[in-house]
Amino acid sequence: MCTALTLKTSEGNHLFGRNMDIEFSFNQSVGIIPRSFEYKNMSTNELEKTKYAIIGMITVIDNHPMLADGLNEKGLACAGLNFPGYAHWESELSEEKINVPAYDFMLWVLSNFETLEELKPELEKLNLLDSRINNLTPPPTLHWIITDKTGQSIVIEKTKSGLRLFNNEVGVLTNSPTFDWHLTNLRQYIGLSSNQVTNAKWSTQELKALGQGVGCVGIPGDFTPASRFVRTAFLRHFALANDKDSMNISEFFHILNNVAMVRGSVRTPDNRSDITQYTSCMNQEKGIYYYNTYNNNNINSIDMHKEDLNAKEIKLFNYEDTLKINNQN
Amino acid sequence: MCTALTLKTSEGNHLFGRNMDIEFSFNQSVGIIPRSFEYKNMSTNELEKTKYAIIGMITVIDNHPMLADGLNEKGLACAGLNFPGYAHWESELSEEKINVPAYDFMLWVLSNFETLEELKPELEKLNLLDSRINNLTPPPTLHWIITDKTGQSIVIEKTKSGLRLFNNEVGVLTNSPTFDWHLTNLRQYIGLSSNQVTNAKWSTQELKALGQGVGCVGIPGDFTPASRFVRTAFLRHFALANDKDSMNISEFFHILNNVAMVRGSVRTPDNRSDITQYTSCMNQEKGIYYYNTYNNNNINSIDMHKEDLNAKEIKLFNYEDTLKINNQN
Amino acid sequence: MCTALTLKTSEGNHLFGRNMDIEFSFNQSVGIIPRSFEYKNMSTNELEKTKYAIIGMITVIDNHPMLADGLNEKGLACAGLNFPGYAHWESELSEEKINVPAYDFMLWVLSNFETLEELKPELEKLNLLDSRINNLTPPPTLHWIITDKTGQSIVIEKTKSGLRLFNNEVGVLTNSPTFDWHLTNLRQYIGLSSNQVTNAKWSTQELKALGQGVGCVGIPGDFTPASRFVRTAFLRHFALANDKDSMNISEFFHILNNVAMVRGSVRTPDNRSDITQYTSCMNQEKGIYYYNTYNNNNINSIDMHKEDLNAKEIKLFNYEDTLKINNQN
Amino acid sequence: MCTALTLKTSEGNHLFGRNMDIEFSFNQSVGIIPRSFEYKNMSTNELEKTKYAIIGMITVIDNHPMLADGLNEKGLACAGLNFPGYAHWESELSEEKINVPAYDFMLWVLSNFETLEELKPELEKLNLLDSRINNLTPPPTLHWIITDKTGQSIVIEKTKSGLRLFNNEVGVLTNSPTFDWHLTNLRQYIGLSSNQVTNAKWSTQELKALGQGVGCVGIPGDFTPASRFVRTAFLRHFALANDKDSMNISEFFHILNNVAMVRGSVRTPDNRSDITQYTSCMNQEKGIYYYNTYNNNNINSIDMHKEDLNAKEIKLFNYEDTLKINNQN
């Protein structure tokens, strides 16, 4: 499962990224998809061409970039998060609509649009299909969070009832169920606060706090999507509310660390450990992709503007998964 | 507030360390206290001399090393964690007992003993005093966790009822209340598990899990000492139970990240943000001190055996608190 | 707020009823509305006539029976539960549809239909209106649970998106949000169980249960609609699963007692105490209405078949709200 | 397991009673033990004689009254609650102390003392023994709550570390662990309140309460002793704080209903249903014993002052366990 986050820094930049929680590696690495990169739309069998260059976490399958999350040169960013039991794709091509395989949705968004404003009206015209990139790769079960340099974000969910677009005012996304369910769920927790409650008197008994954090007692600590949504929304809100002047990349990683999956504590039905394979954080203004991995918490960065965005091929960067320690002596 | 942890690596080394959660910096940095270092016992006004060299997180006040946590050259390690409302020190010197200021307890332990076995019988002879290092520095309110190369750990608490020693079989310590209260509290949570519950039928309604992590629903997510204790004990146990062969420094930091305080979400009564200033992790066999900080998640390391342990002075290392990023292009 | 419940007894009868949670009395009492009782439909200004006799908790306003919950002579039963922020009524009459004021929905259902099968297709034809019985009485904000002698139940919700009918397989209803949200919320709790967990070993620490009930740790104890829904669904399921042969009126009241509001513990925004004014329980086969009140826990009963169901007028019974104690000496 | 409660009524009377939670009937019924009733102390083999008459829930074994809870003619009242894993009795008679079998503790208290003030100094002289009333009946594992007409209450616990007396300022007792652990545990919940939180804004998202009760979110809903203690202490405090003028027998039963065990939901290790067999409530000023049972929620009452307290024999009253309904027609 996964958790995505947006955060405005004290300097006015916009950060966007996610925890990728999954029990196996999918051969991912940061890559840059250049402008005018051609790829085949497996639903229509037609060739498509990217307009904007993209940096993101990519798995290349049959020379096709499968994005987990990414950012384009205009500052539009997107992440796909698992949405099992809800995601539903069409199997029939539509003559009136834009036919896009569900696995290519992020590529379509990031390669064609500059802003949410530009994107939103096009989303209604979309026909998302269950086509496969190849026989070995089943269609994904995703919903998406998309954000641009305004800091606004939206969530796109395609279920059996059709495609829905939500304005996302909490800047968070996790997994199933649907986004509106999670928003309603937050309403259970509005009594929680970052403020300390130092003491109370119940009947005639004086009761003092045992330590900081009493105002937040009741927040769930498990790793289900609903609980991660509540915790992330809580942490983001109170970070911005209390310490707006200290928002930076470190804060971004701290928030996502709280909902990261620790090896051993979350087991899949087939008894493997679901872990946070990597955490990404993109600076939308600067075009920089930051990430660290389960085995290497040191943050790596790749600046798309240091590369040739008109290159012919996808450029992949080494996935730095070996612990990098700063030896002070 | 704070959280301490012990963890045995897959290679058989023993890791020990802690989150330091506090709303301000106390001018800390890693330092090495050499063998035969002399300092004044402010309770007795006598000079003391270290037997073993120590590496730890230190604040030097009046040329005196105040330890937050540390490790000696024999692999004995100790951390002090806040214990407000419970810690109690004597104000009278004892003629029969060993008089040690409470603030020097860790220094006394690490500079004199090699193992828990050697230390334990001496603890009974201890008279812990409320002496101050100087007028500006009040006595601390601490309890301690101590561990050696056997991987065993103990907790020392001195309250108004006297000094108590607990064997610590869960390898975790947080803050108030007393250790035995926390152990009893764990018994509330024995129904929780890392295993997934995939579905159930309540009345005639089929209910499927929305995502991984259902077996752990009910674990508290807040930052009070009790909740951090439960989460850390849960994560440590299931890490070792399910993935014993993947235990290493990364795992150690992942566990402590889960209970780390995120800026903004935990406010002190005077409305400041309690944050995890640093996380430390000591390899007890190798004599290496690892740490990262709130502003710099990159792990730093200092190997005590690369230094002259017979030096005359305390050696301090730079506190690396500026974000260090690995630029891949 | 309120909680409704269905339960099949060991003898094969079907019980249906509810907690009425509200901070004031609304002059309610059990009443019987006879067959062929005439009343004005305030939306159409036409006279309507009941087909079936009804027993229920009633407030008579302007000679009009306002039902809180009730049962008809055919065993069809219905309760209205507060649904603030979601309930939405039309303001325009429809020419094609059956125009019914929202406040008369229960009267319309119970006076016209025998079974859910008969009722369901008619619900689509319904136009629920915001008409008022008089100027002093605003339209209600309700959703409804309806059940018949098959033991099946349905939930009817009319929001801005239209009228929805849900099959209710958990036999429970509380308040906002919508029924499908609550069903999804149950999926968070499928790891909970009535079974005892007696011991566990976390790391090397043996941990024994402190008392019964460990398998249910994590269930929320507050009085919000979501928490009452979870608790009631849990209690109903495990009662039927473990003790199907002991299901009777007592069990029905025990389940609802668990989610009943205790004076003082739930305060409204204007600082009054929300309490469970009464609990009702109808035997659908026998036509008996049982209830007790906040001030009188003794269960009262009224058997509709002991009355003349062809009477001209509504017959009201005394609301027994004074504590009735059985003096044994 | 069990829950005990004290409550001062609006009229100034003191109520005391408990839920008896157990998976089987123990042949209990209300009985009156007269003044000067003789019984054998099985530890000393001497005859004892009651000074004050007692009314309580009794099982008579070999003509010996085993009390579950009771009240004497002076208004002193006591209840024994299960305390497994902690209760410890002596096996050796003491020459200096008063030797009392643990199972006779309540009988000794109620038959000899008028007030807590009178009782407290005698408790130190007590040697509680593991003697048995007969071979078939093992010693109980209990701790006790005792209260008098001042409304004050105390808790008595005898563990391996000796006998401890706690002043009970919250007016509640449940089961294991020790009373001081529960008091400390309450300090986790001091952020909870009966007051409604109507809305909040997290980030830019407005969040409205879904229903009443938001200030109490985080309170545990399960049936473990710790959770029942928290809920009962919460309900008692806020009842008295918000509605002191409505405190009466009904309120007493409402509070205990919230923590009563519902059949099916709490299973013992040998898979039987732990249920609240009865709830008792004694008016300490009036000498009246009220109770209802799992199968009969109608409250029964027995007034000790209507009986001959100088009778020779224990008088037992019928245990009214058959549902008593008030038929209104």
From TrEMBL, chains A, B, C, D:
Q: Which key words tag this protein in UniProt?
A: Hydrolase, Lipid metabolism
Query: Recorded GO terms, molecular function?
Result: choloylglycine hydrolase activity
- State the reactions this protein catalyses: cholate + taurine = taurocholate + H2O; taurodeoxycholate + H2O = deoxycholate + taurine
> Where is the Choloylglycine hydrolase/NAAA C-terminal domain positioned along the sequence?
2-316
One Pfam family per UniProt: CBAH
The catalytic activity of this protein is classed by the Enzyme Commission as 3.5.1.24
- Pathway participation: Lipid metabolism; bile acid biosynthesis
Q: Which GO terms describe its biological process?
A: lipid metabolic process
Q: Superkingdom of the source?
A: Bacteria
Homology family:
Belongs to the peptidase C59 family.
Task: List the PANTHER family hit by this protein, alphabetically.
Answer: CHOLOYLGLYCINE HYDROLASE, HYDROLASE
Task: From the Swiss-Prot or TrEMBL record, give the protein name.
Answer: choloylglycine hydrolase
Its source organism is Clostridium thermobutyricum
